Amino acid sequence: MNEQPSLPRNHYGGDDVAARVLSSLHPAQVDRLAALDQFHVGGAAASRRLAERAGIGEGQSMLDLGSGLGGPARLLAGEFGADVTGIDLTSGFCRIAQALSARAGYAETTRFCAADALRLPFADDSFDAIWTEHVAMNIGDRDALYRELLRVTRPGGVLALYDVVAGANVAALVYPVPWASEPSQSHLIDMDGLRRVVTAAGWTARHFHDESAAALNWLATARPPKGVDGPTLRDVMGPGFPRMIANLRENFEAGRLAAVQAVFEK
Ligand SMILES: C[S@@+](CC[C@H](N)C(=O)[O-])C[C@H]1O[C@@H](n2cnc3c(N)ncnc32)[C@H](O)[C@@H]1O
Predict the structure, then answer these.
(1) How far apart are CA 11 and CA 13, in angstroms?
(2) How far is the CA of 72 from the centre of ligand 1 (A)?
């Protein structure tokens, strides 16, 4: 599979990420996966807020775009009754997500495959809802992205997104951040730009929430997980991960970053 030149394989854990993480899983970890598998600001609580805003419910067929290690997909299946297909450009993450779902009892209600968000391997009108958290920051061609998502959504279906966006302070970001080791991997637009590009692609805005205060509060109060048996996101992303999180917090505090949760309808 061709990867975007702007998203080198090694940013998200390197080629051996699946072998590394899966070989160090702890049997008791299956019930306590959030420090490993919720790869966005605010953790599982932020995913629950978005699911409630989007009205996700029993039996909905969902696409999780950029599904990472699969935590959001399992939360949507387990707590909201959805049936979730995840795609992610990082094939090692898909292998981890699939293995975690099998161990945690979600093999029937979640599945994961490697694919590029801009070339989805699905027919038109395939899903009731599209879900995407902290992925679009890696994607430069937003117009193509939101048109491709519209294509695979059934009429009346929804797009639920949670993204980091450019803040009011236009000073350069401090790198690395969790989605980018350096500027060429990061493609931020501001809140107004996000709303404009999604609606221009054919979506209708239903909810648009500035999540910056919640994100900042989480970044200021969240502590590295202690006493977790088995791997966490630090083991996925490597020893530079604490620096990425510290820079993320500094960029939010300086107003260089903001966060949005939004729901659109086809
Ligand atoms: C910060 S992680 C978020 C993972 C997950 N959404 C979560 O919240 O736990 C970003 C993910 O986006 C994926 N990604 C980036 N660009 C992508 C693209 N063009 N197509 C599919 N996935 C992509 C990366 O491989 C990575 O797994």
Answers:
(1) 6
(2) 12
Lowest-confidence segment of 198-202, 206-210, 236-240 by average pLDDT: 236-240
Tabulate helix, strand, coil % of the chain (nearest 5).
40, 20, 35
Nearest CA to ligand 1 atom 27: 68
Q: 1, 2, 38, 88: which to mutate for ligand 1, most atoms within 8 A of CB?
A: 88
Query: How sure is the predictor about 1, in pLDDT bands with cuts at 50, 70 and 90?
Result: very low
> What is d(CA 67, CA 132) in angstroms, rounded to the nearest whole number?
8
Q: Is the CB of 135 under 6 A from ligand 1?
A: yes
| Domain 14-265 falls under CATH 3.40.50.150 | yes
Task: Decide: pTM greater than 0.85.
Answer: yes
**Sign of the CA dihedral running 34, 37, 43, 45:** negative
C-beta separation of 134 from 162 below 8 A: yes
Helices within 152-262 (DSSP H only) = 191-200, 212-221, 233-237, 241-253
Helix (H, G, I), strand (E, B) or coil at 160: strand
Of 187, 188, 149, the closest CA to residue 63 belongs to 149
| Helices marked H in the chain | 17-23, 34-37, 43-54, 71-80, 91-104, 142-151, 191-200, 212-221, 233-237, 241-253
Q: Could you tell me the residue ranges of all domains in the chain?
A: 14-265
